Amino acid sequence: MVFLSWKKLEGLVRRYALPIPKTSFVSSLEAAKKAAKEIKYPVVLKIFSEKGLHKTSIGVVVCNIKDEKGLVSAYNKISNNLKKTKTKADGFLIQENVNGVEVMVGVKQSNFGPAIAFGLGGIFVETLKDFSLRIAPVDRNQANEMIKEVKAYSILKNKKCNINSIVNIITKISKLSMNNKDIKELDLNPVIVNNKYAKVVDVRIIK
Question: Fewer CB near the last or first residue (10 Å), C or N of the chain?
């Protein structure tokens, strides 16, 4: 089981034109300050770990940081939590703060080929188990069906979320999974979607 480094993850994301927020990989507070100025506040600060940890549960992600003072506070908080939980981070990600409904797109290899999953994202994936499945390749019509099959579709409709942007991500992930059969698991969680766009906030790939 091999988790991909940030450099390799970023390479795949760009190759398949997956929409991600403005993101910078940094290894120090000073670098984080510089990156935040370039990206522009509000930003998100979180660790990057090749082991694909659940960041929220161990307190190593802080959202909606509005200024440099808040960034320093978030950096110190995360650093302390890393020590408390004895967690190893490979670096930090400074990311544009985006808001919307959290969904997920995932891939797992099966006996029939890559299985593509879609459902509500964030902390609700394991709790609600509300997701749809298709075997790749998945076209746009099938992606639309997947979205409409989950109970969370009513939330997406009520929030007037950009469904087409989710369809684009599902079909791109289908293509990626077909072209990279050595990928055992892939998780885009969360993908944040609103009435304008959907953006992939977190990526985890296991080979």
Answer: N
| Domain(s) of CATH 3.30.470.20: residues in the chain | 101-206
Tens digits of per-residue pLDDT, 34-43? 999 999 999 9
Burial 153-170 (b: 16+ CB within 10 A, else e): beebeeeebbbebbbbbb
Which CATH architecture describes the domain 22-96?
A: 2-Layer Sandwich (3.30)
In which residue ranges of the chain is pLDDT below 50?
Answer: none
Q: Provide the strand spans (E) within the chain.
A: 23-26, 43-48, 61-65, 91-96, 101-110, 113-120, 131-135, 185-193, 198-200, 203-206
CATH class for the domain made up of 101-206:
alpha beta
